[in-house]
Amino acid sequence: MFTGIVEELGEVVRVAPTAGDSALVAVRGPLVTSDARHGDSIAVNGVCLTVVEVADGVFTADVMGETLRRSALGALRPGDPVNLERAAALGSRLGGHLVQGHVDGVGELISREPAEQWETVRFRLPAALSRYVVEKGSITIDGISLTVAEVGADEFAVGLIPTTLALTTLGTRGVGDPVNLEVDVLAKYVERLLGSRLADTSGTGGVA
Which of 2, 35, 127, 194 has its C-alpha lying 20 to 30 A from 56's C-alpha? Predict the structure, then answer.
């Protein structure tokens, strides 16, 4: 589990295809590797990866073909910056919101609107995810916990403060770039629970 508060802007060192359609990805991140061990979880652009090896500030992780297809990690190349976050520790502050590191879909940056103290950035999202995105709700973009400012039929906007622009990949993303999206898991649980309840009461003429 993560919080969506990026700890470090890392750099992809190597992407090596392995058996089948998987890949071995090496990422430089001195901060997140300072206490990392084999088997630990580190979120890379919002995707939870398991550490296979750590050496000299670089960690390596196996990325399955399913993950490469369902996220924007498949487009990573050596030299690319990536948002890094270690798994949350019990008892630590929850600065963002509950983030699983399980990408729900890939969005697309469609516009940037600079302002004096912040920047409004708009993203297109897959139709299947639109029902989970609400104004003032939480969403994770490339591993960053953000608050939704506006919602449209197939798009949404967030406001980025200077710190987010300077310390994460969203500061340099351009129009057309893909981003990993994870909607608020609470919304999915509510949908599932309400769906089950409605199904259970469908033959009684109403909801108890």
Answer: 2
